[in-house]
Amino acid sequence: MDDLVSARYRAEDLWRKAYAYQMNGDLAEAIEMYRASIDLYPTAEAHTFLGWSLSFLKRYAEAIEECAKAIALDPDFGNPYNDIGVYLMEQGHWREARPWLEQAADAPRYESPHFAWMNLARMYEKIGPWHEALRCYRRAIELDPDYQLAGQALKLLIARMN
Hints:
mainly alpha
């Protein structure tokens, strides 16, 4: 049991280092560190963030694979559902993104569900109906009243509708 705990702590340390590299724009090092973390102790977070790094390189198929692995490890974790939805939208698959974003919005373990609502709003703004986009922007703002991007998008959509 001590070996498992030790591996988990080392993996978490690698994950944190990977995240720091990612935030500093060193995606190659981040990807390597995320993979090392997963090799030691796979977590939904490490797979999700590895996918996020891959998405910055437009490697969407691999990013989606990593998110699927994250979901298999922790189906309650909202981030990978949202990320799959975003990667699909980035590829122009707006309608296919919907179920993933809805699952993210309803996920029991998601610290930022307002992102899923914002992404649902973006999707509805693109494919319609716009009244659904309005509802989703408002829900994002309700969840995070300081979310300025959602507030600005809502105002722009209202102006377009008038």
